[in-house]
Automatic annotation (TrEMBL):
Protein name, per record: VOC family protein
Matching PROSITE patterns: VOC
Source species, domain of life: Bacteria
Boundaries of every VOC domain copy: 1-119
Provenance organism: Deinococcus antarcticus
Source organism phylogeny: Bacteria, Thermotogati, Deinococcota, Deinococci, Deinococcales
Gene3D superfamilies assigned to the protein according to its UniProt record, in alphabetical order: 2,3-Dihydroxybiphenyl 1,2-Dioxygenase, domain 1
Length: 121
């Protein structure tokens, strides 16, 4: 079983730049309004929100991703945190959590909330 997230965004190219250049995802497929990306075994896609059918629940106005925390587990969270901090102001400091793992939090250009965590051993 695999899980892939599809995030509906205002500007596909801005999102592509963020996920590729800031977080290090690799572009693996695309068309004009849809980009598929991969980071190790994790896959996401970004799609222009205007492509949704009228009346689609995700097309309604409101905060994107409300009630969801997207967690990306990586092998070297310290290096990724340094990379993100150098390019993206909307990220927190790296912190060891009470459950023992180090992580940091951030929002993407569309307000999706991410927790970037070291992998559980």
């Amino acid at each position: 079983m695999t899980l892939r997230l599809e995030l509906f965004v205002d500007d596909v190219n801005v999102s592509l730049s963020f996920y590729r250049d800031v977080l290090g995802f690799e572009l693996i497929g695309e068309n004009a309004s849809y980009k598929s990306l991969q980071y190790e075994q994790s896959r996401i896609a970004v799609q222009d929100i205007r492509t949704l059918e009228p009346g689609h629940p995700l097309a309604e106005a409101g905060k994107r991703g409300l009630g969801v925390e997207i967690v990306l587990e990586v092998g070297d969270v310290t290096s990724l945190h340094q990379r993100v901090q150098a390019q993206w102001a909307q990220s927190t400091e790296l912190k060891r959590q009470p459950w023992g793992l180090k992580d940091f939090r951030m929002t993407d250009p569309d307000g999706y909330y991410w927790r970037i965590s070291e992998r559980r051993r």
